[in-house]
Specification:
344 residues, alpha/beta, 6-stranded mixed sheet, globular
Amino acid sequence: MAHVTSLALTLLDPERKARAEQFAQNLLSHSRFVVISHYNPDADAFGSSCALSLLLERLGKEVVCVNETGALSRYMFIPRVDSIVRKMPDDHHGGMTPDAIVVCDCGSLHRVGESLFEKVNAIAPMLNIDHHSSNDLFGTHTYVCPEASSTSELVFDVIVALKDETLLTPEIATALYAGIVGDTGSFRYQSTSAHTFEVATRLVNAGASPSMVASALFSSNTIASVKLQSAALTDLTLHADGKVAEVVVTTDMLHKYNATQDDTDPLVERARDIEGVEISALIRQDHDIWRVSLRSRTPRYDVSTIASHFGGGGHKCAAAFRWRRSFEELHPLLLKELLALAEG
């Protein structure tokens, strides 16, 4: 722990250090926070927002952590996920009036979700901390670094900028480590840098357990999820001479196997990891919405461009969007975009 501040920051360029320090000062300037992340959250959305909530509480701030989707059972191992609420505090949390909001891991403000957008947009100042290349720099203050592996990595930078190593508790370290491991695919993706490994080392030294996090993220499959994934992958479709893989999950399939939306999450990576596949698409039905997740093997195939055409966003190798009309309308449009990208 003695080297958290000096060692970690030496791996950042001066401009990024300065932005982390400014973001930290902006946090210190306010007392009552809402911390929010994107709907349909992943490990980084929860890891960064929960770690930041815990940090602010250690700094003596009043905090409500919000997510439109709410807490998800598969991420309950991340400290503070169990206290996430689905509504803004004026509706749900005893009337606390925030004097600032921090938006974590959202490429655009619309990623907070339709039910929360107007109330989130009404709060100022708005602090935007994110690593998506599609981020449009919304908000009053930003710490946006597309070169970072994850938003959790950026929250660590902010903690270091506060120059108080006692702020990095085992709970905060666990949340941030989970976010980094989730968004790097266990350090496999191209966004993983020397700084990412240094941050991971600091987090393990502070109390994060690599084996526990890895087990929770990748080795805790229910029998329902195994059966659902087996059925979905059996019906997987390949296009463009095997370069594009498509998986569809309907509500009927979820009911048949007594599975949940959480159980579908690994499918888009499973499809992408097939030999010869460069781009994968997971199309899953969630009541009256079709949720589409996109992945590519390399940045050469920029799936964020497809997501943006449908009102979504993300990274070159990982993106998503939601579709509110029929599958019959969606499918030919999406397939056209996928084939054009694969053949371009």
